Amino acid sequence: RKEVEQDPGPFNVPEGATVAFNCTYSNSASQSFFWYRQDCRKEPKLLMSVYSSGNEDGRFTAQLNRASQYISLLIRDSKLSDSATYLCVVNKGGGADGLTFGKGTHLIIQP
Amino acid sequence: DGGITQSPKYLFRKEGQNVTLSCEQNLNHDAMYWYRQDPGQGLRLIYYSQIVNDFQKGDIAEGYSVSREKKESFPLTVTSAQKNPTAFYLCASSIQGARVGNQPQHFGDGTRLSIL
């Protein structure tokens, strides 16, 4: 199993729809989880941290399922500007340093 | 405005040359990182530093070197020993966590390095 695995997409979604995607991680000792957004040929930008109890930031909701080792991102009322690649990021955990980045899920919002 | 500044934005290197990529931050972050991203790939950690005058190898350190003489600055040198240097290089910083990776990292806007 890869350390962090995401469906690369692309997900083509009509504007205004709700879209969700998951990310699985292999290390049960991981403790920190993040979603980043990366626009084409730009740097990743932190979208939100993911907390154990789940958390919401406007139209975005992140959830963590430790038992099944996945995190999810849900986007409600999608906007054209939500088109981007969404990176799942997990700390290595278990005493190892660093973050592991998924390859990203490409989302395209269509008018 | 606080942030991370990388320069140059685009860099071209002849084979056999060393080049140095600049990264400066004014966020007062203790920890700094260098990643490379290849097309269709996730970010891979080259080197990181948790404190001035100390740094650690990441997953792909071969052919690279760094220094951390000042808190604000973490330059990366791509040496001639790096056989496939063409990539998008990203510098990041974060506040210090109990372990590296516990805190979210904030990125500069990157340097694209190409071989002539």
Structure characterization notes:
The complex is a heterodimer of chains A (111) and B (116). Chain A has 111 residues and is mostly beta strands. In chain A, β7 (60-65) and β8 (70-75) form a beta hairpin. The mean pLDDT of chain A is 93. Chain A has strands at residues 4-6, 11-14, 19-25, 33-38, 44-50, 55-57, 60-65, 70-75, 84-93, 96-101, 105-110. Chain B is mainly beta and 116 residues long. Chain B has strands spanning 4-7, 10-13, 19-25, 31-37, 44-51, 54-57, 64-66, 76-78, 87-94, 106-107, 111-115. In chain B, the strands form 2 sheets. In chain B, strands 2, 4, 5, 6, 9, 10 and 11 form a 7-stranded mixed beta sheet that branches. A 4-stranded antiparallel beta sheet of chain B has the order 1-3-8-7, with no helix packed on it. Classes of the chains: A mainly beta (111), B mainly beta (116).
Order of helices and strands of chain A: EEEEEEEEEEE
Distance between the termini of chain A: 37 Å
Gross morphology of chain A is globular
Approximately what portion of the residues of chain A adopt beta-strand conformation? over 45%
| Poorly predicted residue ranges of chain B | none
Count of individual helical segments of chain B: 0
The major sheet of chain B is characterized as: 7 strands, mixed
Q: Helicity range of the residues of chain B?
A: under 10%
- Classification by helices and strands of chain A: mainly beta
What's the N-to-C terminus distance of chain B?
35 Å
- Quick one: how many beta strands of chain A? 11
Q: What structural class results from the helix and strand content of chain B?
A: mainly beta
Strand coverage percent of chain B: over 45%
- Compressed to H and E, one letter per element, the order of chain B equals EEEEEEEEEEE
**Which chain pair shows the most residues in contact?**
A-B, 25 and 26 residues
The gyration radius over C-alpha positions of chain B equals 13 Å
Q: Which shape of chain B, going by the Cα principal axes?
A: globular
Helix content estimate of chain A: under 10%
Q: Average the pLDDT over all residues of chain B and give the rounded result.
A: 91
